[in-house]
Design goal:
The protein is 29% helix and 29% strand. By secondary structure, it is α+β, with helices and mostly antiparallel strands. The strands form two sheets. It has a five-stranded antiparallel beta sheet. A four-stranded mixed beta sheet has the order 7-6-3-9. Helix 4 links the parallel strand 6 and strand 7 (143-146). The model is unreliable at 186-195 (pLDDT under 50).
Length: 195
């Protein structure tokens, strides 16, 4: 009887370990992750609108038909990214994912507090290279450190009614995601008026 009990407990423990390892390893070994699925549909360092999901077709699983969705597939090896997303009438959110689909930052229109969500995305090394400038405060610009050089930025705009979907899509169409040509410190400086 004790041997049977030990066999059952051992089987349950072994099954639990195998299950846990497979669940944790699956995102790393999956070949059709979000980045791979969106690569043929999107341009690098540019905002691309995704088609609305249909009953039998959707570019990504579990897409909500009440949201217009756009994606920026980024590569920071060429320099930091400047992202600007106009806020829609109802609700706008921006989520950041690594190449391995790990979410590391999100912001919405309510927490941004502005009519345009603007931020600089860069690696920690690029952030460390920025000059220290006392005139530019953290309130002047938002800098996000990406843990990886490549990843996805997902932009969503809510259309509370089906008739408002064109407005939500237009808000995302006006978004920009491009490599900065000059350092973020120079962009944030404001010209002073001559006296």
């Amino acid at each position: 009887m004790i041997r049977l009990l030990f066999a059952i407990v051992g089987g349950v423990l072994l099954g639990g370990v195998v299950h846990l390892v497979s669940v944790l390893a699956l995102p790393r070994i999956a070949t059709q992750d979000a980045y791979s699925r969106l690569t043929p549909l999107t341009k690098l360092n540019a905002v691309t609108a995704l088609p609305l999901p249909g009953p039998n077709s959707a570019p990504m699983p579990f897409m909500d038909p009440a949201f217009a969705v756009a994606v920026c597939r980024y590569d920071l090896s060429g320099g930091p990214i400047k992202l600007a997303v106009p806020v829609s009438q109802a609700y706008t959110s921006v989520s950041f994912y690594t190449r391995n689909d790990v979410a590391y930052y999100a912001i919405n229109d309510r927490s941004a507090g502005r009519r345009v969500i603007e931020l600089d995305l860069m690696t920690e090394a690029q952030h460390a290279e920025l000059p220290e400038d006392e005139d530019i405060t953290a309130a002047d610009r938002l800098i996000i450190d990406s843990p990886t050089a490549t990843g996805l930025i997902v932009l969503k705009a809510l259309a509370p009614e089906p008739g408002l979907m064109p407005q939500a899509q237009a808000a995302l169409a006006a978004a920009s995601c491009k490599v900065q040509t000059e350092p973020p410190a120079k962009q944030a400086e404001r010209p002073q008026a001559k006296r």
